[in-house]
Amino acid sequence: MSELGSAHAASNGSAPIDDNYDELERFVRPLLIDDDTIYHLAYEFSQVYRHLALHSSEQFLPTPVTHLPSGNETGQFLAIDVGSTNLRVAFIELLGDLDDQTQTKIGLDRTRETIRNAQRPRVRRTLEKAWPIGEHLKKDKTEDLFAWIGDCIAEVVGDRLSSDSGRVEAPDVINMGITFSFPMMQDELTSATLMPMGKGFTITSDLDLGSTLLKGYARHTRRQSPDLAASRSKRRRLGPLPRLRIAAITNDTIATFASLAYRVKSLPNSRVAAGIIVGTGCNATIPMKFSDLGEAKTVRIRRANPDATATVVNTEITIAGACGPLEAVTTRWDRELDEHCARPGFQPLEYMTGGRYIGELVRIIFYDYMTRSHRPPIPPASLPSTVVHSYSFTTTFVSAVVARSWSDAELAVELKRRIPPPESSGWAWSSHSAGALRKIAHLVQVRSAGLIAASTVGLLHTVGEITLQEPSLDARVDVLMEGDTPNAALATPRLLSYRGSREVLSPAPGAGAWKAGPEELVIAYTGGIIQHYPNFKDQCQRFIDRLVMRAGPQDGGKSVFLREARDGGIIGAGVLASLNTKP
Known about the structure:
The chain is an alpha/beta fold.
């Protein structure tokens, strides 16, 4: 039956009576990923991570964050979040904790007060503004990009001074925290050196981020002539603005971790064990002991913090050195994407999971199916240009349209409207072709969620937060893939005793004592994919649940939960600034 015949068959609710369905099932088989594969990946990732922590100069980079917020920090800070697609600037006010008041209550009153305190907002954002970072800015000279960033900062600072005019005296200096969504090297919290960026930016490495940003803002601290001031679209004041003091520089993953660590302090038996970003790009952070890191990596941080024994680590786990285990699940479509991207071989895990690439991967696979495996094959000239041309099939489109919960026939109608074939084409979207696109997108999404789960659990095993058994010793635990209900007869596997550590990195002085009971390890997450792609976060949590269940009982009854750190990049910048600002 032809493609158009398939559409007719679907119109009355029946399945297409042809061979295309069976061919599609065979075609997508390389994308399938099961619990066995995910478990093996998690364990193998952990072995690679331990090696990289000790020996890699590009991954598992220690940061100057050697203690966590107590939750009692207060104050107001300027926060900057430079992402891969957007710039955000805001004033962040930390409201602190009311736990001291809770301690004076007893019984039911104390329980109620604890619940109220946990639900109380801990952070207030004011005068927040956001700007898209255009492609021309990404490709501009470094000084031009940072001059634009300086203009945006000046706009928010100017608005703040205008709103406070007559009520509060303008400060001479404003304390600021900065989040950059790019890999960096740091010896101290107030400075950072950029590593190769990727994500469409052409800025060279070895850039001093702090001084470059201050230079971009510096002209706003000097009085300018009216003519020059009027020529700057973002300049609203003729008077000089306050100088900026950089209290903290970090990357988006560390900021996400810090933001939720600040807010989770009021939740009993919960602590943030790691942070992940799954958005345009991907990354993870986790606290690690100095003893698990190469000595050369930590010498300067230990010199600056003699009493510290651990640090929050920027893992950069998507870079090639950490991705050897991925070979087992790499398909010909992944290799095609890799070969034609800006930096082939640089970030294999991100090419399989990041928002910059998911849409393109779906397009590559669907195009291959329609032009080679579909019966009859569809000529490329008959397909929509969006399907034919590289990077024209965006992840946003896949998330908002293809992944929605509607029937194949309804999706076909929507695709006809949004991405029609050329007028000269004899082909049209049908239930079968729409269903094929949906199936491919779904399998890519499930695989991506599984890989994020495997890398996250692998990290937790690396630092001894949870214990995985070696796959060769695995006593199989059968778990239903769809219902998430374990088989009644669970095997109890023999565990590898790696470490008995509990909390690697302690909170700042003043944090409350640990409550008795089962421990909830929180994975702070943010990013457009894990926050907004339909079912991605839930699928990732299901994979994590099955991985931990399969590993067997954990010390202290530990469980692992994903918890959203909404706006973690900008809030975390403020939180880290508070840790490095004297009252």
